[in-house]
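In the current project phase, we have settled on a layout for protein records. A sample record is reproduced below.
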Amino acid sequence: MDFEALYREERPRALATLIRLLGDFDLAEESLQEAFAAALQKWPRGEPPRNPRAWLVSAARHKAIDRIRRERSLAAKTAEIAYLGGGAVSPSELADEPFPDDLMRLIFTCCHPALALEAQVALTLKTLCGLSVEQIARAFLVSPATMAQRLVRAKGKIRAARISYAVPGSDDLPERVDGVLRVVYLVFNEGYGDVRGRHDLCREAIRLGRLLRTLLPSSSEVGGLLALMLLHDSRRAARHDKSGDLVTLEEQDRSRWDRGEIEEGRLLAEEAVRRGGVGFYALQAAIAAVHAQAAEATLTDWPQIAALYSLLLRLHPSPVVALNHAAAVAMAEGLERGLRLVEELEAGGELAAYHLLPAAKADILRRLGRRADAAGAYERALQLVTSDAERLYLERRLREVSGAG
């Protein structure tokens, strides 16, 4: 049994159910960790029970009750213990518990508008993805101590404000949906960008996207996000070679792309656009669909992609979108034109710490045959990159333009 894989698969939904049952983030997390430790000892010959998630939830709930009994006086906590222990169920009886709904409730709880957006994202990454405080701190460019304090404050605010652990009614959905969509996409990206193969997170994000679509069937942004994730996920098998090195979109073996996901994603993207979808996710899905329909990289409709990025930049401006637009312009309208746009962004300084800016510049310079300038840009990108897979790719490109092997 691959216990690490089982941990990744079962933890998010088991934790979501425990938070509903216990009403306390920290108690749920600590009790679940104890349940996993017990599982290592108790599951015979390393084989899990028929429903490992139900076993873990039941074991963790009993451990939570034991902890309350140990840490607080029985008299003061009689009512709470009776509530948690009443009607205790066996693992087999938990088999039909609505785990997907619990996970959706947890996301909407974490994405409550009473919390700052950064706190919403950080809390969800901690609970749903199981990322460490150190990993989340790196993503937000703060110290682990600072991020730990923010997480404690977010959980405290949920308790103090008595934020409901529930999917809100239709009147309250609009004020939360933007945060929920952002979080689901971040969960997907965390799995998609992990060379170690965190496809469990990609699957979970896509599943959540489908659940959101049942809640908001007419939302072009919900449909657009689901389309975008499916279209990206369709390329997952071709993104790395056998040694784990990154393979760019241009160099990927397109016969390995998942045609079923491409077709579903394409139809969803078209539906989102028909519904007037000019939102952030709908437009990105439309761009991904154009890429997916090219049987070969040389057949990519770059003018259409550049036009879509131009619209995205006008309606949802950001330096990162501007960089993507510049790269598309380079392919559609000429490398020199794209290079000028990249250099304008470089001069602006907003992406000074973003490794993909010098990487994009280096790629254009390489295509122009300006090998020495490209080498300098690759070196700058290597100073900023944090992903091992991307680092190996950039080092390979640097060797190519430098003639070093």
Summary: DSSP finds 19 helices and no strands in the chain. Residues 86-99 have pLDDT under 50 and may be disordered. The radius of gyration is 24 Å.
